[in-house]
Amino acid sequence: MSTVLDAAFDPEWYVATYPDVALTGMDPAEHYQRFGRMLGRQPSADAPKPRPILPHLQPDPAPAAGPAPAAAPELVIPRPTRPGPIIDRPAGFNAAATVPGTVLSGLTERAKPQSLSALAEAPHADAGVLVALNTYARLFGLPAPGRAAARPAGSMTAFEPFQTGTLRIESLWHETTGALRLRLTGGEGSAGWMLSAFQAVPEKPDQMHPAGDTLVLPAEGPALWDIALVHPLMPVLVQASAPDGTVQSIALLAFPSLAPGGLHGAEAKALQRTANPVDSLWALSEMLVREKLGKTGGNAASLAGIRVSLQGATGAEPLFAAPTLDWLDALFGLSVAPLDAPGQTLTQGEAALRDMLGERVLSRPDDTGGVTLSLPGCGVPTLSVLVSRRLDADLPDSSAAPYLVAEESNLRPRWMVTPAQGPASDPSQPSIGMAGQGMATETDASAVPIPVAVLFRPRNPPHPTRLMLPTAPDAAEKSAKPAKIGSLQVILTAHDPARLEELLRNVLAMAKAEVTVRLAGPDKAALRACLDGTLGTGGWRETATGTDLRSLAADSDTEWLLTLDDRVVPYDPQTLSTLKAMLDGAPDAASASCLLLAERVVKKSAVISPAVGGLFPSRVSFSSAPALGFNEPDTFQPLPSADYAVVANALPLSLWRRAVLADLPMPDGSVPDHAADIQLGLDALDAGYRHLCTSKVRAGYLGDYVRRDEIDPVGTQYLRPALWESIFRRVTVLRELF
């Protein structure tokens, strides 16, 4: 592009005529050269309007016919070294006023640890400044520091100045493992204030170490402040001082791990009560502190001991870290003991963990003096259960309890899982209870009201070579031993003759069965020929695709009924034995199924992903009347290797007690195909039965499986909220936290 400017260019006229030039902040001549000429704009009022051109299509100038006239002096515009500002700077803006200052604690006496009394004796604005120091001392059973002996009548963490005062903490999060970052807003009233943070170690909770450098607040704008944590879990005291050294306020961040990115960030997300997450965090911290100090609840803490399963543990889990164990001992007086499983063989690494925990615990926790929490190795107890005084002392042993799931890499909250009431299914799920009270049952009136643990699990499923294993690699027990299925009726949905023949041979190898087929494929003649060739003429019977399972069950006298789609690939030859064993162990269960993995081809590559692992309650609808809605979530991350109760099992693969199906009442009208499974499941729940699913055993599903996001129940009997409690008590409830 030429840098020669037209001699007739009038910058003032150009800016006044084209208002967008001023908005760009560019020099008018530069704007004309770069954009105006190509847009066909006039350089001045008297100049003719040029034709719009493009830089790469500019025609060469025509040769002069005669002697050229004297050329006007060329005006060369130098190119700017950097582009102009996109947005004009506000009038009166002082950039220097937005830069915070820093006082390096390593260069002052503040680098040395200080006692609580020394912090209390510093000059302060009023007695309310000392409330947080008093609360901190009570948390660790220390004497009240100096003049901080008076107990507070209001907040015990004294967070109000940092929530509603001149200085406000807008957000906070864990930037790295050892750094807590705060974003602060202030004004003229807090200009020049100094912010300092103090933290102790569990061995000496009365000696406060400076946590990072002191921040000097700027006069304008927000400021970021990184607190270098001395300990990842110990309480943090945040002190704000005026320029003359007078302490204006001290706030107690009793549980810094509640901040996003912390060990208990999922708990803060699950228990968030307000739209502002920081205000909710302060309120939750205040509530936990009050319960810890006995302001609410009973007279003694409910939790007496923590037991952990060492199966599959590597020692890198947060629970086995020395800071976590020291913090549990110093703040809550709790120790972690290994959970002994009968007949369990420990690896060398697991045995080393057992010995390490044994050195810390000279004797087993006294389970008879309170409630005991049992955890898998990948979990940590929640703050709610550590401070709780509300757990029922008569809670049966090994009762299933709600828990949270977070990503192990960045601690991002993902799920809240509330299991069905009753005994915990396996050590991969947390349990809680009082030893000697007997095993939990489904009819126990006392349910655990709080999440008891945070489990850390991978964000992505394992590699397909591990995912496709018929039995989950991390399952406590391998596939069930071969068992006699007994009399079996198979309701088979057929689509492809090639897959149909292979599936029938696999199923008939597991058990002898009566086969009833629904022909859903386009080539029904080929399907019939395949069935005749595999089962023989007269060895099967055909039924319409819309026939209700209840009527088919009533026409048979077998013990079991299997619904099967020919797109299902049973990886494990003992799949039926596993499902039958689940039903044999739960006489009140109507059906059982397993996790299905979808197999599809994407750009010549086989892609395997979890398809369906049961149907769950998901929402409440008020469109016409209060009604529960259901969906098919991705259950692999919250329930990777577990047996769990569901509202209904998907019909591509499910094993039923035939007599239960036959006894269910027929629906009043026709049921859509997409709602047939949820209708059967709800009818069985209404009759007093429940449904089980497992992710310990897996089967494949060829092609795409489109999970249903929302399913509304069919039938007015499920609109009554009085039935919801009965449903929730017998099923697993999954809640997404992201």
Structure at a glance:
By secondary structure, the protein is an alpha+beta fold. The chain has 18 helices and 34 strands. Helix 12 runs parallel beside helix 13.
Helix content: 10-25%
The CA-CA distance between the termini, in Å, is: 51 Å
Main beta-sheet annotation: 10 strands, mixed
Number of E-type strands: 34
Region (Disordered): 40-89
InterPro entries: Nucleotide-diphossugar_trans
Biased composition (Pro residues): 50-66
Note down, in words, how this protein is organized.
The chain is built from 18 helices and 34 strands. The chain is α+β, with helices and mostly antiparallel strands and 738 residues long. Helix 12 runs parallel beside helix 13.
Please supply descriptive tags for the structure shown above.
18 helices; 21% helix; single chain; alpha+beta; ten-stranded mixed β-sheet; 738 residues; Immunoglobulin-like; 34 strands; flat; 4 domains; Nucleotide-diphossugar_trans; seven-stranded antiparallel β-sheet
Summarize the topology.
Layout: E1 4-5, H1 11-17, H2 20-24, H3 28-36, E2 75-76, E3 101-103, E4 114-115, H4 116-121, H5 131-139, E5 168-176, E6 179-185, E7 194-201, E8 204-210, E9 214-216, E10 223-228, E11 236-241, E12 247-253, H6 265-270, H7 277-292, E13 303-308, H8 322-332, E14 336-338, H9 348-360, E15 371-375, E16 379-381, H10 383-387, E17 399-400, E18 403-407, E19 413-418, E20 431-433, E21 453-457, H11 464-467, E22 488-494, H12 497-510, E23 513-519, H13 524-535, E24 540-543, H14 549-554, E25 560-565, E26 568-569, H15 575-584, E27 589-602, E28 605-612, E29 616-621, E30 627-631, E31 643-646, E32 653-657, H16 658-663, H17 676-686, E33 690-702, H18 724-730, E34 733-736
Parallel strand pairs: 13-14, 13-15, 18-21, 22-23, 22-25, 23-24, 27-33
Antiparallel strand pairs: 1-2, 3-9, 4-8, 5-6, 6-10, 7-8, 7-9, 7-11, 11-12, 15-20, 16-21, 17-20, 18-19, 19-34, 25-32, 26-33, 27-28, 27-32, 29-30, 31-33
Helix pairs in contact: 12-13
